[in-house]
Amino acid sequence: MDTLSIKPAQDRHHGISGSRLLSMHPTVRALVGEASLRLTVLDGGADGALDAEVSWAHSSDLSDPTPFLDPGQVLLTTGTQFAAEGDHHDAYVERLTARGVAALGFGTEVVTAGTPEALVRACATRGLPLFEVPYDVPFIAIARFVADRVAAAEHARDAWALGAMRSISFAALRPEGLDATLAELARQLDLSVLLFDASGAVTHGESEGGPALAASHRSDIGAEAARLLRRGQRSSSTMHLDGTTVTLQTIGRRSELRGALAVVGERDLDASDQTVVTSVVALVGVALEQGRILSRARSAVRSAAVRALLDGRADLAAAVLAELGERVAEGEVIVARVQPGDGTTADSRAANAAVLDAWIDDGRVLIGTPQRIRAAAGALVHDGARIGVSAPTRLPDLPRAHREAGAALAAATAASPVVHAGELGSRGVDWLLERPGSRDIAAAVLRPIAHDAALLASLEAWLEANGQTDPAARRLGVHRHTLRARISTIEQLIGRDLSSFAARTEAWIALRATAED
To answer: Where are the alpha helices (DSSP H) in 33-138?
Structure first.
């Protein structure tokens, strides 16, 4: 009977990283190549079959042992099941290959002298590696060889996982802790790592050491990350994309997810890999939470500095902003007050770092050069915000510019989301009366005479005559004494002295409001 020569086991490790090589289970090639066992390979099976990893060695002479076998195991038999008449070898080997058995070992000189030729042919046909076990080599020796090496491999994987987590923990202590943590994870796994924020946007790309990702894969991975984040629950998933395996895990507490981590490569993660990834998910979760808290603290300090600016305390504001590494732009600046859109949160900031951006009460204030503010305003309007913009000014006049921006914001509408303070002067009193509540407030001035048409007409004619009685009386067709008496009555009823310019202005605006009712 011909036998096969086996190439050295180390040939199969070409292209495998060191951390993976040290932790691999024994292969069929390593088993049959063990000199102390004196095993003889009768058929090497299909291409690459000898390089399959072996998880266990099990002996059985059942005609169908597959219910008791797992994929990746080596089966040892003495052939008792073949003693009955009839050729059962093909069906027997077919069952083994369907179950995923890694190899078959036949013990000689127990039932038959040598290995049956029919069994050799069946294994060759099905691509199942077949080796012969000498009579004086007990099956337990083969099982012990496999068990010892499986235990050693698992111990090596545990040791690797501990070492990897230690290296990742040290990386997390660096100033750029989050970046260093993800880079070290990618290096330890020799895979790509992607980090998504809570909105599903990529904040950290794959490592230089990991395989490059196709654009279509990035899109598919991003869509899956967004799906997990929308669920709002801690979860994970595994994707297979054209030979690429993607493992995703969400980061953060339920209903407070901070993002998702994706590990991408050409292999599935084993238990040790998963342990390391889970530890990194915890570290990244802490880092993101700390970053969020720090961001809120910086935002509060920035808001206090901007309040100081708007109160005219520029020196104090500059000192506080310097501690944050920020400053107000030099030269002419403008102030924008923003009513945020539905999708804006207190943690969001203007994309341009040259714009001083702070939350004041329930609104948002931007301070920067006209060019920078226009760019920031364009992005905010896209998110549904309404914005009021002051005229250009310098730091000492920021309090006035803030008030101008507030007046402009009050004039902003969905149709005109950005209003500049310089536009307001051309809109007139009628526009002011269109503001919410303005018409009711103005009309209240004349409410005591609202139902007396003669008094209202007399007041209007008198005000249009600039408070001169004779021209107004002629226009009305009444005696001047009658008009004076009516004006006196109006003053008493509305509680205002119409000899003052302010009172006459209020009365005229109230007439405009009443005329539109």
So the answer is: 89-99, 117-126
The pLDDT score that the predictor gives to residue 208 is 42
Among the listed residues 151, 181, 146, the one whose alpha carbon sits nearest the alpha carbon of residue 164: 181
Q: Measured between alpha carbons, how far is 416 from 375 in angstroms, rounded to an integer?
A: 17
- In this structure, how many other beta carbons lie within 10 angstroms of the beta carbon of residue 468? 11
Q: Cα separation of 102 and 30, whole Å?
A: 13
What is the spatial distance between Cα 301 and Cα 319, in angstroms, rounded to a whole number? 11
- The whole-angstrom separation of Cα 191 and Cα 212 is 10
Rg (CA), the chain: 42
**Residues 340-375 pLDDT 10s:** 876 554 444 544 456 888 888 778 899 888 888 888
Joined together, the tokens standing for residue 173 give 């202590």
Locate tokens 């507030």: which residue?
Answer: 406
- Can you tell me whether residue 393 is helix, strand or coil? strand
| In the predicted structure, residue 22 carries a pLDDT above the cut 70 | no
Q: Whole-angstrom Cα distance, residue 70 to residue 58?
A: 10
> Could you confirm whether domain 9-152 is CATH 3.40.50.620?
no
Cα dihedral: 434, 435, 440, 444 (round 10): -100
Least confident segment among 27-36, 80-89, 201-210, 269-278: 201-210
Which residues lie across from 53 on neighbouring strands? Answer: 27
Name the class of domain 174-327. Answer: alpha beta
How far does Cα 152 stand from its chain's mean position?
Answer: 39
Tokens read off for 444: 């209240």
The answer to whether 388 touches 337, Cβ cutoff 8 Å, is: yes
How far is 184 from 231, CA to CA, in rounded Å?
29
List for the chain the helix, strand, coil content (%; round to 5): 50, 15, 35
Which amino acid would we find at residue 333? V
Q: Look at residues 259, 246, 240, 285 and name the one whose alpha carbon lies nearest to residue 202.
A: 259
Closest CA relative to residue 339, chosen from 377, 313, 369: 377
Q: So where are the chain's domains?
A: 9-152, 174-327, 329-426, 438-516
Most confident range (mean pLDDT) of 102-111, 153-162, 267-276 is 102-111
Three-state SS sequence of 228-255: HHHHCCCCEEEEEECCEEEEEEEEEECC
Alpha helix segments (H runs only) across 100-196: 117-126, 139-172, 177-189
Can you give the pLDDT at residue 117?
Answer: 92
Cα torsion angle, 306, 307, 308, 311, sign: positive
